[in-house]
Amino acid sequence: MKIIVNNLAFEYNIGCRLLKTKYGNKPFNGLEDIWEDIEPLTFKEVTKCITNIEQRRVAINCIGLERITKEINPTLVNKKTLKKKTTWVTQEGEMVTKKFSDTYELYRVEGEKWSKGIDSKIWGQSDVYYVKFKDTSTDREYMIWVDARSVAQTNKDRTYDEDKITATQAIAWTIQTNIKEGDIDCIVRQGDCILIKKKKWASNSNTIRHLTENEYKELLVLES
Q1: What is the pLDDT of residues 191-211, one digit of tens each?
Q2: Domain ranges of the chain
Q3: Short-list 60, 67, 59, CA closest to 5
Q4: Counting Cβ atoms within 10 Å, is residue 204 exposed (0-12), middle (13-18) or buried (19+)?
Q5: What is the pLDDT of residues 9-54, one digit of tens each?
Q6: Kind and range of the H or E element at 193?
Q7: At what angle do helices 53-63 and 65-72 cross, to 10 degrees?
């Protein structure tokens, strides 16, 4: 018997444990009778019993990065705080300006820990990186995996020294555009929605690229 989790089929016992991991004390429909007996799945167990990359991705999402970090013991590579100012209109129609500090943290996870139990030809043994930050309006913490080599390349580090990338380079890298570097007028961010205004003479490119650190720091004018 199989259980479908996020549109992927898992062996029954593993699927039950993933659902328990994801939903905690809230019984999942159809499993109410055995819910209390189900043990949540740990990240270390995922690395041993799930070798399919897509299944592992779903399992990681079920566990959540906060719980994973307690197991994988990541190393803080870089931490940056930006002083920002944003403006918005209240429900009463009044303009409000707020100054705040935005802190980003870049972490590295040893490849040996991350890829344990997976064929190295498929997953590799390279270290992996993620950037941690807070939502500016809710204070919720988020984490996004980044390709450190690509981050270095985007910011013109031709040595591809992954340990030299910064947290702000990493968060900038998570935004993509087809507007050439130098042709962006300004950037507005509302949650996951990114609006990029190009200069009057600029044209769109056929190539999608990542934002650089300088573009993120200099062109992001409004954020909520």
Answers
A1: 778 999 999 988 888 899 999
A2: 2-71, 75-223
A3: 59
A4: exposed
A5: 999 999 999 999 988 888 778 888 889 999 998 887 887 788 887 8
A6: strand 193-198
A7: 100
